[in-house]
Amino acid sequence: MTTLRVVLGDQCSDTLSSLSDIAPGDVVLMAEVRAECTYVRHHQQKIVLVLSAMRHFAERLRARGVTVAYSRLDDPANTQTLAGEVARVAKQVKATRIVATHPGEWRVLQDIKAWQDATGLPVEIRDDTRFLCTLDRFRAWAGTRRQLRMEFFYREMRRETGILMEAPDEPTGGQWNFDHDNRQALPRDIRPPAPRRFPPDAITKDVMALVAREFAGHFGTLDGFAWPVTPEQAQDALEDFIEHRLPDFGRFQDAMAEGEATLFHALIAAALNVGILDPRAACDAAEAAYRRGDAPLNAAEGFIRQILGWREYVRGLYWLRMPAYRDTNALEATRPLPWFYWSGETEMACLRAAIAQTRDLAYAHHIQRLMVTGNFALLAGLDPRAVNEWYLVVYADAYEWVELPNTHGMALFADGGVMASKPYAASGAYINRMSDHCRGCAFEVRQSTGARACPFNYLYWDFIARHAERLSRNPRMAMPLRTLSRMDPKKLHAMRAAAKAFLDGLDRGEAPAGQARLV
C-alpha cells in the first residue's frame, strides 16, 4: 500500500498536513513543471525562489529518510504539467491513493479534483493548517455580513489567538489599531539599515542557470538574487528584521524614498508564502520584541496586523468569492496596460522608481503597490484582468490567493466594495506627502493643469467626475464630491481635457512625459 503525497511548490513546510502521517513506503512527489512557470510569465527571481525552495525541501525530507520522487524541469521524462507528473509517478511507484494539501489557487484546486478520474486512484485533499484561520472559520465569520471589513475580522483573530491581548476583550494598549501613528514620511537624515541578504548556494546557482536558460524572456533580472530559500534563512531574515528594522517599521511603513527600496520593511512575505516561515512564529516574534521593550507597540501591532489581519483575511475572501470574484469589473475599466509597466520608461518619478525596483528585486512594498502603480491603474481605468496579471507576474511573493484580492479589491475597486470601503484614489499630494519622489520629478506636483502638471492630479479629478454618480452612493466619498461640485467649471474642464489627452496618449502607446526639471 503506497500513498503518493504531493507537495506543491508553495508548500515547502515541515508541518504540511499531507505529510503529517507519512509512513514507511510512502512516496512524496515534488514536480517542477513548465506549466506552473508559464501560466503567467513569472518574474525570473520568483521562479528561482520557488524551485530552489523546492529542491532544498526535497533534500530536507530525504535527510529524514523520506522517499522523494522529484521531477526536475529539464528531465526528459517530465510531462511538464502537475496532472501529468502525478499520473506518471503514481503509475511508476504503484500508488494506491493520493494525498494533497489544499492549494493556494483556484485553478490548481480544479486540477487536483481531476486527478482521481485521471489516475483511477482516490484523492484526499486536506486542509492547509499552516494558516491561522481555516476557510470554514472565515466562512462562518463572513456569514450573511453585507460588508466584509478586515478590521473586524482582525479583532476576531486577535481574540481567538490571544496575540497582543491582555484579556479576552482587552487589546494591548487599550486599542485595536495604531495605524494613525504609522504615517510618517522618511526624514532626509535617516538611512534605513540594509536587510540581510542570502547569497545563492550551489543548489540555487543550479536553478538560476536553469531559469536563465529556459525563461530568459520573462520579466526581471536574476542579478543580485538574495531571497531566503530555506527555513533557517527565513528565520534569520525574520530575526534580522525584528532586531534592526521593526523598531522604526511602524511610523515609516507608508513612506517612500528615492534609492530606498526596502526602508524598514520585513521582506518576509515571499518566505511566508512559499512555506519556509511560519506566520504564527512571525507574529510571536514581533509581540515578544514589544513585551521586552525592543519595539514600540505601534510597530509591533502594525506588523502583526499585516499577517494576522490582512494575510488571513485576503485568503478567506479569495476562497469565499472565487471564481466569480476575478471577473468583476465594477468601474467598467477596459484600458490596456501601458507598456511602461514593463519597461519603467516614464518621467513620472514615483512610477519609475516602483517599477524599476520591481524589475530588479521582484519586490515593492505595500504603499508602492497600492498608491503608486495601483493608484495609477485605478485612475487611468486600466483593465483589471491585465493589472491583476501584472501583479501576479512581477512579485516574488505573489500567488493568486493573496495577489487578487489586494489588487482587484483594494487597488482597483473592481469588486465594487466587497473588500474596501471606498476607492483608494489619490492625487499627487499623497505621494508628495509620503515620499521625496516629487522633488526630482519632471512633473510639478502642485500643478493640476499645464504642460508640467502632475498627471495624478488631473487624473484624480477626472476619475471623481467620471464616476460621480456611482460614488455618490458611498458616504466616504462625500468630501471629494462636495469639492467637485464647488470647483470652478473652467478648471474642471481644463483638468478633464488634460486627462483625456493623457489617456489618449496612453492608448497610442506613448509614455507619460513632462518637461525636464532643472535641479
Shape: globular
Alpha-beta content class: mainly alpha
| Spatial arrangement of strands, main beta sheet | 3-2-1-4-5
C-alpha Rg, in Å?
Answer: 24 Å
Question: What's the mean pLDDT score?
Answer: 96
Distance between the termini: 73 Å
Share of helical residues: 40-55%
- The residue ranges in which pLDDT falls below 50 over 5 or more consecutive positions are 515-519
Tell me what you see in this structure.
By secondary structure, the protein is mainly α. The protein is built from 23 helices and seven strands. The strands form two sheets. It has a five-stranded parallel β-sheet, with helices on both faces. The chain has a two-stranded antiparallel ribbon with strand order 6-7. Helix 9 runs parallel beside helix 12, helix 10 crosses helix 13 and helix 16 packs across helix 18.
Note the main attributes of this structure.
5% strand; 519 residues; two-stranded antiparallel sheet; mainly alpha; 23 helices; five-stranded parallel β-sheet; disordered C terminus
Q: Secondary structure elements and their pairing?
A:
Elements: E1 3-6, E2 27-31, H1 34-38, H2 44-63, E3 67-71, H3 82-93, E4 97-101, H4 106-113, H5 115-119, E5 123-126, H6 135-142, H7 150-161, E6 165-167, E7 170-171, H8 202-214, H9 231-244, H10 246-252, H11 269-274, H12 279-291, H13 297-321, H14 340-343, H15 349-361, H16 366-380, H17 384-394, H18 400-411, H19 428-434, H20 455-466, H21 468-471, H22 478-486, H23 489-507
Parallel strand pairs: 1-2, 1-4, 2-3, 4-5
Antiparallel strand pairs: 6-7
Helix pairs in contact: 2-8, 7-13, 9-12, 10-13, 12-13, 13-18, 15-16, 16-18, 16-20, 17-18, 20-23
